[in-house]
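Dig into what follows:

_____
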Amino acid sequence: MSAQAFSQEMADSIVRQLVRIDFGARRCIIQMPIIYPSGSLVGIRVSGFSGDFTVSDMGAGYEEIRAVRATKSFLRHAPQVADSIGVEFDSKSFFVRAVGESQLVGAIMAVANASQTAVTLVSHKQIAQDAKDAEERLFIRLERIFGKVEHHKPFAGASGHQWDVDAVVHIGERVALFDAVSPFKQSIYATVAKYLDIGSLPNPPSRFSAVESAEKLGSMIGVLSQASTVVADDTPDETIVSFANAA
């Protein structure tokens, strides 16, 4: 079978898969191949008439941030992002008004990039702050339960990679590892990768993921549970001691 050269048909097929368009009365919604930190795609609405189009992210960036409880930070940073990219921001949406047909592509890209940039900036700040707060709560709790706790100790996995573990507790000859995990998927995936590698050791230590609330993880708790024992803020201290001793 002879090799097929890249064709216009192939290119058109790729574009259709990368960009999805939903048409409606006097507007269309364009799903861009640009991703928010949550994994959602950036959606852009184009509305109006030729020569006077409005391009907007429909407040989707704001909703992404509201889900992680960081709207105040978003409202501080979003106007700066809008100004740097050359679009407008009205406390919820990034947009450009009075767009001509020849300007649509540039306006769509600018609004999409502004929305994604602002959400990424604020999300990373919130993730870092949440991680710091969660670690502090974890350290205080473990020191109350077990006494001596080693903070941020490197621990080698089966691959030989040295992982940073939030807390290490020694219980007699047993070793228990604890990581503070936030509901953000990045935090969950990082802990799962770490614990799967460490769990592949010949005699692996017990591995615990400390979360604020199991309910906030939704279905992702199943992913986290594959690599560790999940304990929440409302898990009794006695239960954690029992888990650590039994591992």
Helices lie at 8-18, 60-66, 71-85, 104-146, 185-199, 214-217, 220-225, 237-246. The two ends are 57 Å apart (CA to CA). The mean pLDDT is 89. The chain has eight helices and eleven strands.
